Amino acid sequence: MSKKRILCICNTPLQLLNMINVISNFYVNDRRDLIITDEIKNCNLLLENIKNTNFFDQVTLVKEDYKQSVFLAKGINKLFEFKKYKRRLKKQHDTKIKYDRIFFGGKSWLNIFIAKQSNKSAKYEFILIDEGTASYSTHGLYWKRAFLQKFINNLKPSQIIKKIMGIDYLFNKVKLQYLYHPEFADYEVPFKRERIPALGQKNISLYKQIFGYNDTLAIPEKFIYFDGAGTEDGLYGNDKELLETVAKIVGKENLLVKVHPRSSSEWYIQNGYHINNNTSIPWEVYCLDEENLNNKVLISVFSTALVSPYLYFNYSNKVISLIHLFNKSSYNNYYQYLLDFIENKIFSSRPDIFIMPNSIDELNNFLR
Fold first, then answer.
1. What does the alpha-carbon distance between residue 297 and residue 276 come to, in Å, rounded to a whole number?
2. Contact at 8 Å (CB) between 322 and 237?
3. pLDDT in tens, 146-178
4. What are the b/e assignments for 330-341, b being 16+ CB within 10 Å?
5. Where do runs of H (alpha helix) occur along 27-90?
6. Closest-CA residue to 299 (of 251, 246, 350)
7. Nearest to 285 by CA among 30, 49, 58, 73
8. Which of 216, 228, 291 is CA-nearest to residue 258?
């Protein structure tokens, strides 16, 4: 019996970790190829590290530098820019290779392009892989909308253009979804779900080799604040003010700011904060050794990193979410829904782990 062939498409380090975990538990005998994109920091070094592990048969780096032009284009111009983008992708990905399964984490133009190109020549199984809190919430908006809602939404000019570009093509083709905690999913799907075993049970040395992690990079500070990428996404709130409050309570010398890979570290450096110097190592790699998290207090407004120890490793570290102190007025319905989901479905399910102070006085009491 011939081996089946898998293509993994990774836009983030977390997607890569989770796809390796799924393969190691369910598809260990299959051939596998990997595509990573230049959206991942230090992607060229990561590419070489991955190749050196020999876990994947073929590893390809796809440059998506032109993607921003597609996002910025308006109206019919978006279609023309999208054609240019696809021409660039065709030069970087061999669409003649036939795969049995394609793993992906969510909607992206690269994922959709490969799916549409691949499906022209063979029957593929498209598999949706856990990529964080969005996999349990906002990804499901496609399946949660009623028929009438979808119909009305599809009449919007911007949505018509996205439909022509194939925005929903891939989600229509999904046959299977892998999640660490299917019971947290806030939506029903017309296909099967499978539970992924916890991260860290296998491949610890492999993950560390890929991301260049060693014990000298362990975080010494007791308090870890996770920066979100809201500002980079055009979303603004009082998170910097809340961080300043936290720093006054615990002392900057005891606090590390884990800067989001899409965020700038300039403000934190100028204001005297300890930061992680290597933003290309995902937080989940730090979590592989449970003792690294002993006595650590994790703090943020909201971040997948806050829930990662519990969601992916079944750890019970103390977590303080500032979600009740955060000004969400600039957030659109999409992000409001995501925040509400995290609070009501995850944080509220384990009050012994997730603490949500309602005032600065409460925050002060929890941190002292």
1. 16
2. no
3. 544 554 555 566 556 566 556 677 778 899 999
4. ebeeebebbbeb
5. 43-53, 67-72, 77-90
6. 246
7. 49
8. 228
